[in-house]
Every structure is written in structure tokens, then in C-alpha cells.
Amino acid sequence: MKIGLIGLPKGGKTTLFNLLTGANVATSRYDTGRAELHTGVARVPDPRVDRLSGMFKPKKTTFATFEVVDLAGIAKGERSGLDTKEFRDADALLHVVRAFDDPALPGPDPRRDISDLETELILADLEVIERRLERLEASIKKRRTDAEVKEQEILRRLQGELEAERALRVVDISADDAKVIRGFTFLSQKPILHCVNLDEAAVADGERVVERFGLEAVAARPHTRVGWVSAVIEAEISQLSGEEQTAFLADLGLREPALRRLLQDCYALLGLVSFFTVGEDEVRAWPIPRGTRAQDAAGTVHSDIARGFIRAEVNTYDELITVEGSFADLRARGQLRLEGKDYVVRDGEVCHFRFNVAK
């Protein structure tokens, strides 16, 4: 799964990319409007993984991850970079919104910047639709087919929505129509997290970011979240550990680094949940889309396990913690369930897959 990192220039986007992925991309790397991008992998913090790892003491501990694609800043009216394939393939968008003063820029206005960015996404999608409708019209004149007529009808409806300045993520699109347009990877249809990048002085009031900047209407939109971070502060926090970090957070009035919450918000925005596998060799969180069947979840571990799937042995994280990692105690309590291939794996479940692959 992939998050596309996007924003207007000088909003702190690349700084946040470095924090999310542990990369060291220079913030001056990108010039406005260039289609250049950088990719990295973000690890999702999960205290459950930490607890399980401490309990089983495995040789290896693996957290859930997702890919992050950092696109050059998109200035108003300059959206050529939005056609970059790697970016359009993102499953969701993370929009970094400036809320700090910069002497080289006008005063920060998150609501304005969110509106400007959404407009660029809408216009980019309109251009895609207009190009496709031109080709469809010519094709239908030569040889009319039901499939192309249906596609034309759907695209014209969506064109009207976009011309009315409505992002496609708020438009009701049937499952059948969604299949027809899936290949277009419309940007305004993707779930989006608007992350307000605060200055140090505003960090303690971060939880009120929606009210402070008048973003209530934005936060209420379908498939939309509003979060916050201070990239500058998070960079300082990342250099500290142990008691130093705890003391620094306490001085700021924070319980934990905001970056952890942001990563978890991104994970949720992608529609992902985690199940766990545990043992002496490895404790691992496996990301899967919410609603995944047990056999498909097994396939994330290895394709052979899915192919030879027999049953999934399942228990909850809380149940395992209660018995301090003893599966024998879970069996004695009747808390190890055997589930079939169509069982929907839920967030936080510990799974052991029984399988048999014939030679």
C-alpha cells in the first residue's frame, strides 16, 4: 500500500518525508513543478508489537510498513507533476499544510491552502476526463459499443461533478461504475489526510487544530481526515531517546511524538489493519485491508500457505497477553479458535495458519 505525499511548496513536506521514512533527502532537491519524486518506506509504530516482542524475545521483530512517495511541491496552476505514474498509483494522499510563518511567503492559511490543493487535484482529474472523452467521442462515431457508451456516460457525470468543484471522493459512485473508472486513478477520489504542520509555539494546542483554523467542514468530508504535526519539533525529538525524549515531550505538553499518531492515521486512511504472527524466530505485524478473508491473509505470509490453506488458528492480542504468551493456557481456556478460509481476520488477532501443499 502506498501514500502519496503532496503539498504546496515550502510547507515542510520533504522534511516530513524524511521523518516518516528515515531518509535524508535535501529539502532543496525539488524545484516547483518538477515531476521528480522520491520513495521510501514508513514503519508503523505499534505498542502491541513491542509487547509481544518483549514476551517472546524473537530473533527478529518486524513492524507493519507502507510505501511513501514524495512528489515535488505543487504550486497553484502548476500540476504537471500530478501525472507521474508512481504518484497516481498511490492508494491515499497525505497533504502537508503549512501553519508556520515564513518571511519569504504570505502568512499561513491552512484553509486556503487546502482549498488550493484540492482545486489542483480536481483540475488534474478534469483534464484526464476531457482527454478521454475526446477519444471516446471519436471512437464511438466510428464503431459504437455498449462498453464505450457506458464509460462516456459515467465520465460525463463525473465531469459535471468536477466542474461544480466537487472532489470525486465525496461523490456517490456505484461499485459497477467504480470498476469502469478504476484505471484512471483519479487523484480527487483518493482518501486524503490534511496534516497541518505547526510551529513550535503551537504544538501544545495541536489537538485543537481543526477549530483553530476553521477546518470543521474539511474534517467532515467523506474519506478525509485532518491531523497535525510539527516537523521541526519531530526532527528534534527523533534525535533524542529514553529519558531525554520523555522530558522534552513533557515540556511540550505531549504524551508521545505526534509522528506516531500521524503514521497510525496514515495506516487507517489506507484502510489497513494488522494481524500478528509470533514465535521464537519472529514477531511480526502483517498489514492487510480491513475485511480480508483468512485464506487471503495467509497469502500475505506466503503464497504456498494460501494455496494449501486448511484452517487458521486464531486468538486475540488481549487473550494472549492475559496468559503471558502461553498457547497451552489459551487451549485450556478454549480461546484458540479454528476458523475457515472465509473468516474475516480482525485487527490485533494472532494467527497461526495450518496448511498442506502437496508435492
The H-and-E topology, N to C, reads as EHEHEEHEHHHEHHEHHHEEHHEHHEE
What is the strand content? 15-25%
Report Rg: 23 Å
Distance between the termini: 33 Å
Main sheet summary: 6 strands, mixed
* Secondary-structure content class: alpha/beta
What coarse outline follows from CA principal-axis ratios? flat
Which segments are poorly predicted (pLDDT under 50) over 5 or more consecutive residues? 29-33
The strands making up the biggest β-sheet line up spatially as 2-4-1-5-6-7
Helix content: 40-55%
Mean pLDDT: 89
The number of strands is: 12
Descriptive report:
With 359 residues, the protein is of the alpha/beta class. The protein is built from 15 helices and 12 strands. The protein has helices spanning 13-21, 47-56, 85-88, 110-142, 146-163, 175-181, 209-212, 216-219, 231-238, 242-252, 258-269, 294-301, 303-307, 317-322, 327-333; strands spanning 2-6, 37-43, 60-62, 65-71, 92-99, 192-198, 224-229, 272-277, 282-289, 309-316, 337-339, 349-355. Mean pLDDT is 89; it is low at 29-33. The protein is flat, with a radius of gyration of 23 Å. The strands form 3 sheets. A 6-stranded mixed beta sheet has the order 2-4-1-5-6-7, sandwiched between helices. Strands 3-9-8 form a 3-stranded mixed beta sheet, sandwiched between helices. It has a 3-stranded antiparallel beta sheet with strand order 11-10-12.
